[in-house]
Amino acid sequence: ECMQASWDVEEVQAKGIQHLASFVKDKSAFPYLLTCTEVITLAMKVHTDSLDLQVEGCTLLLGILSQALEQGVMMALDESVASCLLHTVRKHSENEEFLPMLCTLLMMVSASEVAAENLRKVGIIPDLLSILRRFLHNDEICSSCCAVLWSLAASENNADQAVLESALPVTCAVLQKHLQNGVVAESACSALWALALRGCLTDSDYEPIAALLLDALRMNPERAVLVKNSCLALASLVRLSETAALAILLDSKGSGIELIKDEYHLHLDEPGVAAALCLLMNEMVQYDEVMLDMRSQKMEKLLSEIKLQFPFS
Questions:
Q1: Distance in angstroms (rounded) separating the CA atoms of residues 169 and 262
Q2: Beta carbons of 296 and 251 less than 8 angstroms apart
Q3: Checking CA distances to 155, which of 3, 16, 134, 168 falls within 20 to 30 Å?
């Protein structure tokens, strides 16, 4: 109430945020903190020029969201909160020190479908793409932004098709730049999967993107989530074009089929990986020429292994 009575007084907002932050570790205060997100983000929007207040506000929101995750509570932040966060993003879009924290906050917020939809509605995607282009070298920013992009692209709303299509080149650039960084590559592969599902690719994209996803698999074989999402992305490409299937078979760096076999044996206890691999193979066998090649590479043997390993799945 004190903060709401004095929106224009920066010191009141800063002190209010500091007081609220002192309750974050008190689990009994959590239900009350949940009701404060709009007040906090509005204070950030009103005093957007104050970097200190932005940092303290972000830190507090991250603390509340972390508590929510620990307690299994999904915070569906409304459109007014999304609008305030967008305002902060636009005001500080060139601040490389502050952006990693802000992008992490957006990533955590977008885990909720409702909040992701609200971020999409207020038009945050072009701002994310602009940040990615400007800070392609920054792994923290790239990882968080791609995760947000994945959440937003996975939405069933088709209003942003043209905007999402413009996300494809920069997402590929992120993956190319950070192939050896498993965290960033995993996030970028997830974003590419969502963009492929949304039909954001053209005929000329299938071969290079398939090759890029295979590179991500080769560079990060131990990351189960990356393997799963890369295979799902590849399956989406193959469903759309035989070119993608042939690119997997004839990749210049080695057989994609052998790579798939290696990945399965590396993740024998991961049903999600096995399911993604099966989906990919299921898409590949729709093309006669590809199926003949898979037979010659003894794919039936691998399928039998998977069936024995997961008989009830």
A1: 29
A2: no
A3: 134
Would you call 92 helix, strand, or coil by DSSP? coil
User: What token pair was written down for 192?
Assistant: 């590419």
* Cβ pair 158, 121 in contact under 8 A: no
Mean pLDDT of the 210-218 span: 96
pLDDT tier for residue 156 given thresholds of 50, 70 and 90: low
What is the rounded CA–CA span in Å between residue 105 and residue 94? 17
SS3 of residue 84 by DSSP: helix
- Tokens 């890029």, residue located: 212
* Pair 313, 275: CB distance under 8 Å: yes
Report residue 222 as tokens: 């131990």
Quote the CA–CA distance of 271 and 25 in Å, as a whole number: 36
The token pair at 286 is 């729709």
Q: What is the pTM of this model?
A: 0.90
- 149: which 2 tokens? 């992009």
The residue type at 217: L
Cβ–Cβ < 8 Å for 161, 198? yes
Tally the C-alpha atoms within 13 A of residue 140's C-alpha that lie toward its C-beta.
Answer: 11
Contact 58, 41 (CB under 8 A): no
Separation CA 37–CA 32 (nearest Å): 10
Q: Which amino acid appears at position 191 of this protein?
A: A
For the chain, give the number of residues: 313
Question: pLDDT tens for residues 33-60?
Answer: 988 989 999 999 999 999 999 999 999 9
Model confidence at 259: pLDDT above 90: yes
| Per-residue tokens: 239 | 């469903």
- Under DSSP, is residue 247 helix (H, G, I), strand (E, B) or coil? helix
**Which of 295, 298, 299, 303 lies closest to 275 in space, CA to CA?**
303
Q: What ranges make up the beta strands (E) of the chain?
A: none
Output the six-digit token pair for 132.
């990615």
- Residue with structure tokens 């309750």? 23
Give the tens place of pLDDT for each residue, 91-101: 999 999 999 99
Q: State both tokens at 198.
A: 């949304």
